Amino acid sequence: MGYIFASFTWWSYLLYDKNESLHEAQINAAYLNHNAAIGSTVSFDTFQKTETYFSIIEKHNRQKWMIFGEGSVFLVLLILGTIQLFRTFSKEVSLAKQQNNFLLSITHELKSPIASIKLSLQTLSKRIQFEEKYERLITNSIEDTDRLQGLVENILFAARMDNHSYSFERKEENISDLVEHIIEKFKINVGSTRAIHVVIQPDLDYKIDKEALRSALINILENAYKYSDMASLIQVHLYKKGNQIIFEVIDEGKGISSEEKLKIFEKFYRIGNEATRNTKGTGLGLFIVKKVIESHNGKVWVENNQPKGSIFKVALPIEDEKINHLTIKETIHQQNV
Ligand code: ADP
Questions:
Q1: Ligand 1 in contact with 150 (CB < 6 A)?
Q2: Choosing a second label site near 15 at 20 to 30 A (CA), which of 23, 48, 211, 259?
Q3: What is the dihedral of CA 170, 174, 175, 181, to 10 degrees?
Q4: Residue 160 lies in a domain
Q5: What is the pLDDT of residues 248-270, one digit of tens each?
Q6: What share of the chain has pLDDT > 90, as a percent?
Q7: Could you read off the pLDDT of 37-88 as tens digits, one per residue?
Q8: With a 6 A CB cut-off, is 282 part of the ligand 1 pocket?
Q9: Taking residues 169-175, what's their average pLDDT?
């Protein structure tokens, strides 16, 4: 806005200045023409009493008022525009704050009742021998509350990272064990419905915020499950390459186009439209993944799998050499039912 005001002033001054020079040149030319027309040289004072001189002065005055008039209208519009812009801008800022506060409060409100319902259902399912039908109902409810809990945690986590109120606390941990636990839990959750091939290099240590990283890796894994066919294979690899620890999840889903490869990491971004989509989600998962990985100074990106599907890769840089066990002892878990 400063630049616009400065250039407006500068152009107004230039226009005014040019108009004055043009006026002077017109007077001089008219004076010479007048002398040429009458065939003698009259004094400038005498020329100032002629009609030609008055009409030039009148035209000049009109042009001057036009410049002032139009300049003032532009200035007023510019000031009004600036005021409007600042109003809209501050409204936007307070709206973003409200949205953030809303997310934080709603998630807090939802979190405790969900946890308490889940606990009650778990207690009920252990103590009382129900008929099969009731047991199924309880199991379904527990799964539902699990999903709700995951959703609420994701929203809360995203909101806290967005307003920088989450502080990452990193400690040296065995990342191989962490991935192993994640896979075990994942296999229990998805049951025997999916073929998962896992290769984990053992004893890889890294300074991590365990809960944050767990949530990020689970998000990638759940996406591979959600966005590919039930009959297709999911592969998970964890290994050290050069001075990086690489975690990758390979699926055989429908893949992600080049234009969407960066967009999917934006907050709330989901491919396709809500009406035709049949997978559940909020578009927050990969936003969280990106934030968490970047807070560990790492990178996350997606590549095409061949012949189809996606490869999500996370690379964590090893700043100083802390990995003691470099003998690669691969643990292979295979579940193919
Ligand atoms: P959500 O899964 O809740 O929609 P995410 O942020 O985890 O949100 O993912 C954003 C979008 O990226 C998803 O809606 C989906 O369209 C796409 N996506 C993520 N992972 C995969 C995958 N493995 N294969 C195909 N598309 C994916």
A1: no
A2: 48
A3: -110
A4: no
A5: 999 999 899 999 999 999 888 88
A6: 56
A7: 988 888 999 999 999 999 999 999 999 999 899 999 999 999 999 999 999 9
A8: yes
A9: 94
Pocket test for ligand 1, best of 161, 264, 304 (most atoms within 8 A of CB): 264
Instruction: Tell me, yes or no, whether 126 lies in a domain.
Output: no
On the question of pLDDT at 183 being above 60, the answer is yes
Q: Residue 329: which pLDDT band, with cuts at 50, 70 and 90?
A: very low
Size (the chain), residues: 337
Q: Are residues 44 and 192 in the same domain?
A: no
Task: State whether the beta carbon of 302 lies less than 6 angstroms from ligand 1.
Answer: no
Q: Where are the alpha helices (DSSP H) in the chain?
A: 2-38, 44-47, 51-127, 132-162, 175-190, 210-226, 260-263, 285-295
Measured CA to CA, the distance from residue 95 to residue 101 in angstroms comes to 10
Dihedral angle computed from the Cα positions of residues 130, 133, 135 and 138, in that order, rounded to the nearest 10 degrees: -120
Ligand 1 pocket, residue 309 CB under 6 Å:
no
User: What CA–CA distance (Å, rounded) separates 279 from 271?
Assistant: 11
Q: Which atom of ligand 1 is nearest to the CA of 288?
A: 6
Beta carbon of 310 within 6 Å of any ligand 1 atom:
yes
Which residue range is the domain that position 26 belongs to? 2-91
Task: Indicate if 234 and 324 belong to the same structural domain.
Answer: yes
The tokens 């809360």 sit on which residue? 156
Residue 154 Cβ contacting ligand 1 at under 6 Å: no
